[in-house]
Design brief:
single chain, 250 residues, five-stranded mixed beta sheet, 17 strands, 0% helix, disordered N terminus
């Protein structure tokens, strides 16, 4: 509710004091915003005091002049935080924290809506989505809050199961591909006794089948451990086996 009243007199200097009935007052032109989070209709009387520069005084009151409808407050939180949603774990649990509201409308920004109180929603594609919650009370007074969900693609790498380090130019190295925007990439290779055969770092790291003595290893199965982190600091580890085949022994 707004009050915008100006009292003008000519020939006499006047000062004005407005009392809005809710604990706030203001001099001269009156403009005031009423808030009501009580859940009930609140009525306020408005009083105007006028004093002239000659000491004359007049006062006028409008009893219960302002009726302020109750206003809800829309609020929510989510797990995980909306800045850290990944396509590998796309389910987001929302929790309504609104007050003085008995009707809710969720819009998840991907064409999906619901009236549930604490909905769970799954994002199927990466991108940015504006999540909007509209909260209304029994008088249909509404409040709205929006937050942006950033859904990122948690890269799933391609790791071959075997390679042939024989120098023929085809399938000569063991590598990992299919990840983007990753940091702290490290590849480790172990023999069947658990001894470290190879260790390398960087987004272009590959294993050419040689050991620490720069010699081609024997044919067989070797264990690998590849680790990296995304820009949010989450760490990923992939472990498995790779078979070395077609070793040339000239």
């Amino acid at each position: 509710e707004f009050i915008d009243e100006t009292v003008n007199q000519t020939g006499v200097d006047l000062t004005y004091l407005w009392d809005f009935g809710d604990g706030y007052s203001r001099e001269d032109t009156a403009e005031h915003v009423y808030e009501n989070r009580s859940g009930k209709i609140r009525n306020y009387s408005v009083k105007l005091d006028i004093t002239s520069n000659q000491g004359c005084f007049s006062s006028y009151t409008l009893d219960s002049f302002i009726a302020v409808l109750p206003q809800p407050t829309a609020a929510f939180e989510s797990t995980p935080d909306l800045n850290g949603v990944k396509t590998t774990e796309p389910l987001v649990q929302f929790k309504d924290n609104s007050t003085q509201a008995n009707w809710l409308r969720w819009d998840f920004g991907d064409g999906t809506t619901t009236n549930e109180k604490n909905p769970a929603h799954q994002y199927t594609r990466e991108g940015e989505y504006t999540v909007t919650l509209v909260a209304k009370n029994f008088l249909q007074c509404a409040d709205t809050i929006s937050k942006v969900a950033i859904v990122k693609h948690a890269n799933t790498p391609f790791i071959p199961s075997g390679f042939t380090p024989n120098g023929d130019g085809t399938n000569d190295v063991f590598f990992m591909e299919g990840i983007q925007d990753m940091v702290n990439i490290k590849m480790e290779i172990f023999d069947r006794w658990g001894n470290l055969v190879f260790s390398g770092e960087g987004k272009d790291v590959v294993w050419d089948g040689t050991n620490s003595q720069n010699r081609i290893v024997q044919q067989g199965v070797y264990a690998y451990r590849i680790s990296y982190a995304d820009e949010l600091g989450e760490e990923f580890v992939h472990q498995g086996n790779v078979t070395v085949l077609g070793v040339s022994r000239k």
